[in-house]
């Protein structure tokens, strides 16, 4: 018996209601993933801020009582502070508020001659940077073009507003983790040989016993740079709390736009930034100056925690510094609903990248990252290249995730080192 018009209308209404309910459910699921993404960011930046406060205490102890022990403790606390911060880098690229701010705290590489004394092998001039050897710590005034800049009082305003990236030169890094790193370790003059920077603790002795001059100004610079790091991290942590601008912009966006932001951060950090600019470029050039934490030889940890942060965002699970877990709705759950095999592939490739980074970390028991990328170190080079390959494979899966979630195509950050290698040597 054929269904009558009333029967057909009833079936059509039932289908529409079912489809509508499914759409509402999908929208709710996506919004839950976005909310949890913001919750993880809030936890990561809070951990980063807390770690910076611990760094401040260690720096204060160093400056109050300079010694080998207090210098070692300050360095170790800096390394520990990097771990939560590096996990936040997955929030760059897709979130303009983070990308626009990031240069204040993590800009690299830097021309350290802007800040303090350098070894004669560093050179005396650069065509790209007129402040290549300005040495703010060693002078009360510096020349920039026709301007004379008063640097007699090292303040937050001087470093962050006047000197940081002055003249549009990105290597004029006056603030952030790497400025502090240089002030704690000094230059790494070992090339691709063993050893990190070895600034003497006596560089912070006040009065008799001060080495390399200007110990009072060096202490002032380190204090101000550390205080600025806390200020900047506190500002960003506030943006991810309830009512903060970063959280609000995501929650007010359409879910597909917010998901695109999440995946832009994942894909761009995975490919152009980490695999390309931070790893492949240095490997191609065999250049220790292209390693991320070049003064401290902590680069392996910075790369590793970038990967840990990417895993956290995809899997919806972040382990806080205190060991507690922030877990909730994830990209993985959305992908699993749409294509379970792709979710398995994505998880497998995240695991492969993590394993490759663990191999780099394990290798640092016998050689540092800058030695691994050295010319002629076939085994070290291969270990780094394996991680680059894993990151590239991971990015291909992220591209498939974008498609299966029916998002607009995303153009991830690229790198000449991966996309146009010949250009690197031109």
Characterize the overall form.
Answer: globular
Biggest sheet details: 2 strands, antiparallel
Calculate the terminal CA-CA distance, rounded to whole Å: 78 Å
Give the % helix. Answer: 55-70%
Structural class, judged by helices and strands? Answer: mainly alpha
Low-confidence stretches: none
State the order of secondary-structure elements, H for helix, E for strand. Answer: HHHEEHHHHHHEEHHHHHH
Average pLDDT taken over every residue: 94
Description of the molecule:
With 426 residues, the chain is mostly helical. The chain contains 15 helices and 4 strands. It has a two-stranded antiparallel sheet with strand order 1-2. A two-stranded antiparallel ribbon has the order 3-4. β3 (317-319) and β4 (325-327) form a beta hairpin. The N and C termini lie far apart (78 Å). The mean pLDDT is 94.
Could you name the key traits of this structure?
two-stranded antiparallel sheet; mainly alpha; 426 residues; 4 strands; two-stranded antiparallel ribbon
SSE blueprint:
Blueprint: H1 5-64, H2 68-87, H3 96-106, E1 141-144, E2 147-150, H4 156-163, H5 177-185, H6 215-240, H7 245-252, H8 255-285, H9 299-315, E3 317-319, E4 325-327, H10 331-338, H11 340-363, H12 369-372, H13 378-404, H14 416-419, H15 421-424
Antiparallel strand pairs: 1-2, 3-4
């Amino acid at each position: 018996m054929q269904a009558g018009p009333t029967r057909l209308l009833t079936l059509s209404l039932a289908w529409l209601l079912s489809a509508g309910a499914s759409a509402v459910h999908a929208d709710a699921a996506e919004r839950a993933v976005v909310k949890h993404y913001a919750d993880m960011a809030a936890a990561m930046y809070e951990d980063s801020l807390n770690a910076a406060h611990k760094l401040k205490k260690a720096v204060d102890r160093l400056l109050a009582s300079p010694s080998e022990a207090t210098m070692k403790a300050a360095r170790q606390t800096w390394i520990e502070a990097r771990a939560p911060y590096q996990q936040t880098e997955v929030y760059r690229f897709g979130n303009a508020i983070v990308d626009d701010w990031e240069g204040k705290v993590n800009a690299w590489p830097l021309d350290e001659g802007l800040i303090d004394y350098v070894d004669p092998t560093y050179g005396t001039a650069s065509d790209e940077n007129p402040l290549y050897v300005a040495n703010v710590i060693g002078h009360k005034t510096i020349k920039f073009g026709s301007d004379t800049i008063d640097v007699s009082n090292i303040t937050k305003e001087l470093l962050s507003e006047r000197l940081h990236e002055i003249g549009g030169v990105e290597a004029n890094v006056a603030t952030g983790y790497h400025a502090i790193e240089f002030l704690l370790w000094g230059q790494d003059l070992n090339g691709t040989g063993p050893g990190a920077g070895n600034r003497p603790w006596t560089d912070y002795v006040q009065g008799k016993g001060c080495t390399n001059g200007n110990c009072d100004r060096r202490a002032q610079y380190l204090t101000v740079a550390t205080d600025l790091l806390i200020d900047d991290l506190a500002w960003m942590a506030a943006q991810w709390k309830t009512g903060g601008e970063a959280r609000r912009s995501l929650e007010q966006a359409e879910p597909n736009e917010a998901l695109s932001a999440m995946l832009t951060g994942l894909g761009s950090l995975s490919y152009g930034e980490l695999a390309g600019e931070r790893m492949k470029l240095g490997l191609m050039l065999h250049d220790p100056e292209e390693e991320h934490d070049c003064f401290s030889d902590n680069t392996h940890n910075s790369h590793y925690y970038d990967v840990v942060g990417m895993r956290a965002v995809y899997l919806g699970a972040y382990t806080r510094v205190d060991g507690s877990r922030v877990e909730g709705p994830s990209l993985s759950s959305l992908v699993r609903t749409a294509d379970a095999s792709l979710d398995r592939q994505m998880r497998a490739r995240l695991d492969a990248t993590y394993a490759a980074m663990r191999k780099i970390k394990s290798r640092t028991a016998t050689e540092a990252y800058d030695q691994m990328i050295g010319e002629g170190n076939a085994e070290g080079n291969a270990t780094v290249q394996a991680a680059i390959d894993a990151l590239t494979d991971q990015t291909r899966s992220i591209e498939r995730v974008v498609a299966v979630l029916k998002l607009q195509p995303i153009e991830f950050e690229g790198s000449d080192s991966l996309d146009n290698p010949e250009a690197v040597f031109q």
